[in-house]
Design a protein that fits this description.
With 239 residues, the chain is of the alpha+beta class. The protein has four helices and ten strands. It has helices at residues 14-31, 113-116, 193-211, 225-238; strands at residues 37-46, 49-53, 58-62, 83-92, 97-101, 122-131, 134-140, 143-148, 170-179, 184-189. It has a five-stranded antiparallel β-sheet with strand order 3-2-1-4-5, with no helix packed on it. The chain has a five-stranded mixed barrel with strand order 6-7-8-10-9. Strand 9 and strand 10 form a beta hairpin. Helix 3 crosses helix 4. The N and C termini lie far apart (102 Å). The relative contact order is 0.09.
Length: 239
């Protein structure tokens, strides 16, 4: 603004800055491509991720693309002003949206998961978080498995995993199934030595009385469940 007598002059560099940003943006449009690795500076932290200035235009790192490990608070990992290297995973110039990833530049821990956690193997892990349907257990950073709620509680029915375990607890688990392609591992609490012994004894007893019919059974019969239970009680009473 400029008054006629020149005593009041208002200046602004906003138009110059905006013009420079428009030029930078056009230059980025011509050079920035999907799957490129670029460097930028974190400008702000949000619950859903972090915005990064790529030199004239901002992109977003979604919280799920920050690390292979589960991230609760973005601020625990990133901070405004921090320089980061990211991979461009998608670009939408019409909506001016650029999605970025730090995780894509890190080694994928799931690539060796099938060899590291075969079915039937036992491992110690840390309970990372609880959900209504079960507890997620971190086996190694970036690899979490799920113990379904039906397998918690030591045989007792529970309405929430928190009734049996807590976040941060160490838990010994057995791998029931693994699907590395979909990043899924089904786990169950590992049996104690006492539980394993009981199972072996029960299986041996069941096998014994199924193969050898009891006297109360009809000729040629494999025996009933009642026969097996009676035999088991008899075994225990003799101990």
């Amino acid at each position: 603004e400029y008054t006629k007598d020149g005593r009041n002059i208002v200046l602004s560099n906003r138009e110059i800055i905006e013009e420079e940003r428009r030029e930078l943006k056009e230059a980025l449009k011509a050079s920035l491509k999907k799957d490129m690795d670029v460097k930028g500076t974190v400008t702000s932290i949000q619950k859903f991720g972090a915005f990064v200035d790529l030199g004239g235009i901002e992109g977003l790192i979604p919280v799920a693309e920050i690390d292979w490990s589960h991230v609760d608070q973005v601020s625990d990992v990133l901070a405004p002003g921090q320089e980061v290297e990211v991979k461009v995973i998608s670009i939408d110039w019409d909506k001016e949206r650029i999605s970025l990833s730090i995780k894509a530049l890190l080694p994928d821990p799931w690539e060796s998961s099938a060899a590291s956690f075969p079915e039937g193997s036992t491992h110690k892990g840390t309970i990372a978080r609880l959900a209504k349907f079960g507890a997620f257990v971190t086996l190694v950073p970036g690899v979490d498995g799920l113990v379904h709620i039906s397998k918690l509680g030591g045989g007792k029915r529970i309405s929430h995993p928190g009734e049996a375990v807590s976040e941060g607890d160490m838990l010994e688990v057995t791998v029931e199934s693994i699907d590395p392609d979909n990043h899924r591992i089904s786990l169950s609490p590992a049996l104690t030595s006492g539980q394993e012994k009981d199972m072996v004894e029960e299986e041996a007893l069941l096998k014994k009385y199924v193969q050898k019919p009891s006297k109360s059974s009809s000729k040629g019969s494999l025996g009933t469940l009642g026969d097996v239970l009676k035999a088991k009680l008899a075994e225990k009473s003799r101990k």
